[in-house]
């Protein structure tokens, strides 16, 4: 039995691979169809996870938007929204973040042992706080804990640093990349995957499962291949 959920990343990037501007300002990259596809993926997941960088930059709610999908979840005995998870080593999630206050459903903040006790206490009033790792969140250990909590299917929605953390730790099964019809530019603008980058011999290989034209861009679905 696998020790972690099935994990997939969904990301929208410009034709030059950027996921936001150099000021980390959110850009509308997806069109209507792609946002709807993303919503469907959200509704089919047990949990949706983002990094604290995304919470601080975008203040996303990560809720399911379609009334029909929310109803379907209700009819299946689920809450309207999947659990929403923030990877937040130092417990910096603002108490009025949309992810904590909008919509029903479980909230989980993944922290490390370096998180201040008073911040953890405050967050506990609004979310389940799970600790994994010493200085930063140990993502592999966190995945094990999420699986033990019943999470079988986990959607990761970025940003660039968390995508690197998950991919470099070998914790991702599939990736959806939507490539939109814009060029954002900027050497410091976040890309789909930032972090330290793989050494040449360890560059990650993918298998293309599908590609289709969507809105004014292209959607690709990739399987992450195990290291040889
Ligand atoms: N176009 C898109 O699909 C999306 C774009 N974004 C963009 O991404 C940007 C945010 O990305 P980032 O600044 O890179 O922040 P991020 O959202 O990737 O969060 C990274 C932070 O997570 C925390 N963390 C704790 N443990 C970690 C670990 N083991 N590995 C990795 N991170 C760990 C660290 O504090 C780290 O700085 C924003 O500009 C946002 O607009 C975010 C989501 C989707
Ligand atoms: N899939 C996708 N396409 C785009 O064009 C985007 N700008 C984003 N951005 C991310 O979506 C999240 C917003 O979620 P809510 O609407 O608040 O539920 C946020 O994290 C953006 O970074 N995604």
From TrEMBL:
<dbReference type="InterPro" id="IPR011549">
    <property type="entry name" value="RibD_C"/>
</dbReference>
<keyword id="KW-0521">NADP</keyword>
<dbReference type="GO" id="GO:0050661">
    <property type="term" value="F:NADP binding"/>
</dbReference>
<keyword id="KW-0686">Riboflavin biosynthesis</keyword>
<dbReference type="Pfam" id="PF01872">
    <property type="entry name" value="RibD_C"/>
</dbReference>
<protein>
    <recommendedName>
        <fullName>2,5-diamino-6-(ribosylamino)-4(3H)-pyrimidinone 5'-phosphate reductase</fullName>
        <ecNumber>1.1.1.302</ecNumber>
    </recommendedName>
</protein>
<dbReference type="InterPro" id="IPR050765">
    <property type="entry name" value="Riboflavin_Biosynth_HTPR"/>
</dbReference>
<dbReference type="GO" id="GO:0009231">
    <property type="term" value="P:riboflavin biosynthetic process"/>
</dbReference>
<comment type="pathway">
    <text>Cofactor biosynthesis; riboflavin biosynthesis.</text>
</comment>
<dbReference type="InterPro" id="IPR006401">
    <property type="entry name" value="Rib_reduct_arc"/>
</dbReference>
<keyword id="KW-0560">Oxidoreductase</keyword>
<feature type="domain" description="Bacterial bifunctional deaminase-reductase C-terminal">
    <location>
        <begin position="5"/>
        <end position="219"/>
    </location>
</feature>
<dbReference type="InterPro" id="IPR024072">
    <property type="entry name" value="DHFR-like_dom_sf"/>
</dbReference>
<dbReference type="InterPro" id="IPR002734">
    <property type="entry name" value="RibDG_C"/>
</dbReference>
<comment type="similarity">
    <text>Belongs to the HTP reductase family.</text>
</comment>
<dbReference type="GO" id="GO:0008703">
    <property type="term" value="F:5-amino-6-(5-phosphoribosylamino)uracil reductase activity"/>
</dbReference>
<comment type="subunit">
    <text>Homodimer.</text>
</comment>
């Amino acid at each position: 039995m696998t020790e972690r959920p099935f994990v997939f990343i969904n990301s929208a990037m410009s034709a030059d691979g950027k996921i936001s501007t150099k000021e980390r300002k959110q850009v509308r990259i997806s069109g209507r169809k792609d946002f709807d596809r993303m919503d469907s993926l959200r509704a089919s997941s047990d949990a949706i996870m983002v990094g604290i960088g995304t919470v601080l930059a975008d203040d996303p709610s990560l809720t399911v938007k379609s009334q029909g999908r929310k109803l379907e979840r209700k009819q299946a005995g689920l809450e309207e929204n999947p659990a929403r998870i923030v990877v937040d080593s130092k417990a910096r999630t603002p108490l009025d973040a949309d992810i904590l206050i909008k919509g029903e459903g479980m909230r989980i903040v993944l922290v490390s042992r370096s998180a201040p006790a008073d911040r953890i206490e405050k967050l506990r009033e609004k979310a389940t706080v799970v600790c994994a790792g010493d200085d930063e969140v140990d993502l592999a250990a966190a995945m094990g804990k999420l699986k033990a909590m019943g999470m079988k299917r986990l959607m990761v929605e970025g940003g660039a640093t968390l995508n690197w953390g998950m991919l470099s730790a070998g914790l991702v099964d599939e990736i959806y990349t939507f490539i939109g019809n814009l060029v954002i530019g900027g050497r410091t603008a976040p890309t789909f995957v930032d972090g330290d980058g793989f050494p040449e011999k360890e560059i990650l290989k993918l298998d293309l499962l599908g590609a289709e034209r969507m809105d004014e861009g292209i959607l690709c679905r990739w399987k992450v291949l195990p290291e040889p």
